[in-house]
Amino acid sequence: MAGTSPRSNEVRKQETKQQLLYAAASVFQRKGYHKALVSDIVAEAGVGQGTFYRYFADKREVFEMLMDQFIGDLLEKFSEMSANLPMDVSEYRSASVRALHKVAETADRNRKMALLFVREAPTIDHRFSEKIADFYDQFAKLAQFYLEHAIKNGFARECRPEIVSQALLGIGVRVVDIWLNERLSGITLRELIEELVEFAFRGFGLPSQSTKKERV
């Protein structure tokens, strides 16, 4: 009988690893990071502990991989905007809404995991606290990059983009926190994103006469 091909072995290994990741995500959501055990994960996956340790050193490594995948998925939502930089304020606003809506939809689909990362990751160890901080910095750097592009091309006012980008991130993080914890009611996801983007572009000042005419 012909032996199993190396490609088939690799596919099977990747499938088993993904199976363990899915199982771990389910266990972490149900029990939290600190109460979850490797025995819970393998029971959920339907494999033995030996199989688990062929792929991961411990539950911390699984949690970190899940977190890295989640963060990478969120940051990828800005790839279209980065590849096709907006060339006027209207394009900038529309691109921001599209990208942030994709981010919010991803977080909404994975609400329990998002909350788990925000709440428990910083309590694991200093390295995880740094990963959360680095994640926020990556978002702030993206905001700064887009803002500097807008200033350079004349459709955003002169400002200190390194400060403004951090301020926008702070607003966004706070709103995301209360939204994930379901403390915002009577507002759709799109309405939430559009309100945040509108505030980022206009602040809370009254619209100019020209803006009023545009809306008529």
Describe this structure in words.
The chain has 216 residues and is an all-alpha fold. The protein has two domains: 1-56, Orthogonal Bundle (Arc Repressor Mutant, subunit A), CATH 1.10.10; 60-205, Tetracycline Repressor, domain 2 (Orthogonal Bundle). It has eleven helices and no strands. The chain has helices at residues 6-31, 38-45, 49-55, 59-76, 79-83, 89-109, 111-124, 126-152, 161-180, 189-202, 209-215. The longest helix has 27 residues, at 126-152. It is elongated and about 65 Å long. It starts with 5 loop residues before the first helix and ends with a helix. Residues 211-216 have low confidence and may be disordered.
Give the helices and strands, then pairings:
Elements: H1 6-31, H2 38-45, H3 49-55, H4 59-76, H5 79-83, H6 89-109, H7 111-124, H8 126-152, H9 161-180, H10 189-202, H11 209-215
